[in-house]
Specification:
Blueprint (H helix, E strand, L loop, with lengths): L2 H18 L3 H16 L18 H13 L5 H9 L5 H10 L3 H15 L11 H13 L4 H9 L3 E2 L7 H5 L4 H13 L18 H8 L5 E8 L2 E8 L20 E2 L10 E2 L17 H12 L5 H16 L19 H13 L4 H10 L1 H4 L2 E2 L12 E2 L1 E2 L2 H12 L3 H8 L8 H4 L1 H9 L14 H9 L1 H7 L5 H8 L3 H13 L5 H14 L2 H13 L2 H4 E2 L1
Parallel strand pairs: 6-7
Antiparallel strand pairs: 1-3, 2-3, 4-5, 8-9
Helix pairs in contact: 2-14, 2-15, 3-5, 5-15, 6-7, 8-12, 10-11, 10-13, 13-14, 13-15, 17-20, 17-24, 24-25, 24-26, 25-26
Length: 543
């Protein structure tokens, strides 16, 4: 091919690709236009109109987007550089930098780990948490699209210690009904399990449709596995009927799914054909496990199945903005109208057009004025929510990162001092991070207004030996700061930047300096100040 034709072909291909992938800035602007058209300026019952909040200042934006994208606080140096940057596009440039940070994949892998394992049916599923986190970290960081990640989860097999994509099946110990419920909930936002024993009480789904979906999963099983490193489990495909033993057999398993007879529970029930309820695509009885799950994965992630793109968009919007288009985040339903329906529909279609690029979606949401608005506390589910961002309580992992950053704690050193985990089953819980997650973690699928603070959480922050040790001016980073900096006002500034990722107000500086003067002990006074910042509501929330 002549060089000029080759160059023309490359140029046309690039232009076609650019046309196919929705433009971030235009998409973000369109979202704001749709929200403004639908929700601002209408008169309320009291005669007042609902007006959007102004955009946040730079410090608030940087803390917000850093926690949302990589799960970590910005450093004092990053805060200063961002504040001094005069460029108009510094916010979008910051998002790009964060998306290339390895902590991007780690942050979102931990989010989805909690989505999967918080609703586990068996404690033995904890064996797979670390592998699932590692798998998702790698996939998110290398830019694997969400559809491909979903397909890997649905079709997963093998040892769970090496194949983190087995997480959903493992968390439900391969029970066909439970796996059906979770696959539908996580990847489609549809609570199809509500139709397991009767027709869905709120949506059009029928009982038969749940069991037709479950017929894709009767040929999977989880069995113990013993590797060089110790005990594990593996997800396997069943190939032979009961009574004909093979290495892949599990005693008592059925190779087809039967819908139970509610009037006669002892009966075998009705034999069900594998049919995907969202599109009515089906397979014949007798299909192999691989064929069933591969076909279901392909049908579920196809561009024509809009439940798939809506489920992911609703979750990501809800996590970043503070409230979903529809809540709970994993309960969309065909017969219930979401808030800002036109915006939701538009963003979901654009996400599908991006080939399910999760980084593209993060870019778009972070670029909207909606995301960058001043936050308000949560209230009811009225459309007025789209006039402001919403305060978010930090997830356990985000809080742990914030603590280690603010206090200058080295996570690896802290774990070495603790001696590390002693039991593979409880490995995640026995680490310092795991203990924070046990105390402060919550199911990301739950409504945020149902997540309440607790006495154990308050006591942990007030009395934790590790936190008190880190705050100690004699042994911790605070002592190093006091030795290096003789100006008390400069110390106050540094503590606010480290802990709250912002400069203190003049009134806050004065209160802190007055406390130092009245205490008469510089070290003890600054220990009090740092302790107070760590225990503040502002530290615990992303606003």
């Amino acid at each position: 091919m002549p060089l000029r034709l080759l160059l023309a072909f490359v140029a046309c291909t690039a232009a076609s690709f650019a046309w196919a992938v929705p433009d971030v800035a235009k998409t973000a602007a369109r979202i704001d236009e749709l929200l403004a058209a639908d929700h601002y300026g209408d008169a309320e019952p009291d005669g007042q109109s609902s007006q959007p909040e102004p955009l946040v200042d730079d410090a608030t934006y940087l803390r917000r987007v850093s926690l949302d994208v990589i799960g970590k606080l910005p450093s004092p140096e990053q805060i200063t550089q961002f504040a001094l940057d005069p460029s108009a596009d510094k916010r979008s440039k910051t998002v790009e930098k964060l998306l290339t940070n390895p902590h991007y994949g780690q942050n979102w892998s931990r989010y989805w780990r909690d989505v999967i394992y918080m609703r586990r049916s068996d404690e033995r599923a904890l064996f797979g948490q670390n592998a699932t986190t590692a798998f998702l970290t790698q996939e998110f960081n290398k830019g694997t699209d969400w559809a491909e990640i979903a397909r890997k989860f649905i079709t997963a097999k093998g040892d769970i210690s090496k194949n983190g994509e087995c997480g959903i099946i493992l968390a439900q110990m391969a029970d066909p009904s439970n796996v059906t419920a979770e696959v539908s909930r996580i990847f489609m936002g549809v609570q199809i399990q509500c139709a397991q024993c009767h027709n869905h009480p709120f949506d059009r789904w029928k009982r038969e449709q749940f069991h037709e979906m479950a017929a894709f999963f009767p040929r999977i099983a989880v069995r113990p596995s013993f590797q060089m490193g110790g005990r594990s489990f593996e997800v396997i495909s069943l190939r032979r009927p009961v009574g004909k033993r093979s290495p892949a057999d599990t005693e008592g398993a059925k190779l087809e799914h039967y819908m139970p007879d509610l009037e006669n529970p002892e009966a075998e029930g009705t034999l069900m054909t594998p049919i995907f309820y969202a599109t009515t695509q089906k397979l014949s009885l007798g299909a192999s496990d691989e064929d069933r799950r591969e076909k279901l994965a392909a049908w579920m992630t196809a561009r024509g199945n809009h439940w798939f793109d809506k489920a992911f968009v609703n979750r990501m919007w809800g996590e970043m903005v503070g409230h979903g288009f529809q809540e709970p985040l994993d309960d969309l339903g065909p017969d219930r109208k979401p808030l800002a329906a036109k915006t939701f529909e538009f963003l979901s279609r654009e996400f599908a057009s991006s080939d399910y690029d999760h980084k593209w979606l993060v870019r778009v949401i972070a670029a909207t004025k909606m995301y960058q608005r001043v936050s308000r506390p949560r209230h009811d589910t009225s459309d007025d929510q789209f006039a402001a961002s919403c305060t978010q309580r930090l997830r356990g992992d985000q809080l742990f990162n914030a603590l280690t950053s603010a206090l200058g704690i080295d996570e690896a050193e802290l774990e070495r001092r603790r001696g590390g985990p002693k039991n593979a089953l409880r490995a995640a819980a026995n680490t310092p991070r795991g203990q924070i997650n046990q105390t402060f973690g919550y199911d990301p699928s739950d409504r945020r207004d149902e997540i309440a603070s607790s006495i154990p959480q308050a006591l942990f922050l007030m009395n934790s030996p590790d936190i008190n040790r880190a705050i100690s001016a004699r042994r911790g980073p605070l002592g190093q700061l006091l030795d290096k900096e003789s100006d008390n006002e400069a110390v106050v500034l540094e503590l606010y930047l480290r802990t709250l990722a912002r400069e203190p107000k003049s009134s806050e500086v004065e209160k802190c300096l007055e406390h130092v003067r009245s205490t008469g002990n510089r070290e003890a006074a600054f220990e009090d100040i740092q302790w107070a910042l760590i225990n503040s509501t502002e530290f615990l929330y992303r606003k």
